[in-house]
Design brief:
By secondary structure, this protein is α/β, with parallel strands linked by helices.
């Protein structure tokens, strides 16, 4: 999925993926990320409230989001005035006390740009990417994360040939293949009642995995 596609969605306010509150599985399982302060990588972060929740729990959030307006919206909505600096070609870092968001393509964000990260929170990020991109995405995250990092991964799974992704359905088998060599445990799940799934008459399951690299 091209970044232009997402930029258009943000521009038109078609952001049904934005929950506007803490994700239920993050709320239940945040302790799995380890004791704060971790530096938690939140790839494809949008302006999710989950970042404010992680920061309120003492973590430092390291988000990456391609659409700069989403990054600006996060800080504006939390009445924060971030410091802004250029950190790479087409990448700007917005930093407040506990949240640093990189406005740029996740694939262009190297370890030297994002700094050390030792936990992962991926919600609606892996599933935003098509099957040909997902292996490269997970391999890239693994170049950024410290050894033995812990993570929470929140995905969607559904069966439908008519539903127009994203989000893409991602099965437990695929996650085990993508994170081969890491410990992957499905820890929670529930029906997901998003408007697009409802309109399409598709029953989707939102599933949460604990990952340890
Ligand atoms: C489905 S949304 C999920 C946002 C957030 N995780 C949430 O739960 O609300 C996917 C986000 O990834 C961003 N995105 C897509 N491709 C990206 C890329 N290559 N690098 C960084 N961000 C990207 C999009 O702009 C969009 O905000």
């Amino acid at each position: 999925m091209e970044i232009d596609f997402w930029a258009q969605r943000w521009k038109e306010g078609r952001i049904g993926f934005h929950e506007g509150k803490t994700n239920v599985f993050l709320g239940r399982h945040v302790e799995r990320l380890g004791s704060p302060p971790r530096r938690v990588l939140v790839p494809l972060c949008g302006k999710t409230e989950d970042m404010a929740f992680l920061a309120s729990r003492g973590h430092h959030v390291v988000g990456v989001e391609a659409v700069e307006d989403a990054v600006k919206a996060f800080f504006a909505e939390h009445e924060l005035s971030p410091a802004v600096r250029e950190v790479g070609e087409h990448i700007r870092a917005y930093s407040s006390e506990r949240v640093t968001l990189f406005a740029g393509d996740v694939f262009a964000c190297t370890q030297s740009i994002v700094g050390e990260v030792d936990a992962l929170y991926d919600r609606a990020a892996l599933v935003a990417l098509s099957s040909d991109v997902r292996p490269r995405y997970v391999a890239h995250l693994r170049t950024l994360l410290a050894p033995r990092s812990k993570g929470l991964l929140v995905t969607f799974d559904y069966t439908s040939s008519s539903f127009d992704p994203p989000p893409y359905p991602v099965s437990e088998d695929e996650i085990r293949r993508l994170y081969a060599g890491a410990s992957v445990t499905a820890i929670d799940e529930g029906p997901f009642d998003g408007p697009r799934f409802r309109e399409a008459g598709v029953t989707a399951t939102e599933r949460c995995y604990a990952i340890e690299l």
